[in-house]
Amino acid sequence: MPNSQGISGAAKQAALGAIVNGKSLSAALYLASATTGPTNATYTTTGEVSGTNYSAGGVTVTNGNTAGLTGTTAFWTPSASIVYTNVTLSTAFDAVMIYSTTDSNRNIGVFTFGSTTLSAGTFTLTMPSNTSTDALVRIA
Length: 140
Description:
mainly beta, 4-stranded antiparallel beta sheet, 3-stranded antiparallel beta sheet
């Protein structure tokens, strides 16, 4: 078998772990008309939704999982759904930024979904299973 090159799974897991393990995280929602994405280094209020019972910065993310590893794929998912309760967001929104309040509001990732509006309801982002094939964040 010939030699091969690549980043080891252990290094990928360590890198992802440094970003998420034991960190306090939040999740902010963004308007469908916003231009928020992975180029944002940190949380921003630009393009963030506003409405009844929604506070700037969003909600706290339950972060009970640590970065996992299967083969050479490192992975991580929040350990519970992200829930916004009894909110009215009448302008269409379609993205959430998960960011680390522990690390000066560093953007971990922006994730999109179908355009939505909400009137005095609960909006839930159900998290995928924390596995190398389904996790929200995967470094293969």
